[in-house]
Amino acid sequence: MSVTEAGATIWLTGLPSAGKTTIAYELAGRLREGGHRVEVLDGDEIREFLSAGLGFSREDRHTNVQRIGFVAELLAANGVKALVPVIAPYADSRAAVRKRHQSEGTAYLEVHVATPVEVCSVRDVKGLYAKQAAGEISGLTGVDDPYEAPDAPDLRIESHTQTVQESAASLLALLTERGLA
Question: Which residues are annotated as a binding site for ATP?
Answer without folding.
Answer: 14-21
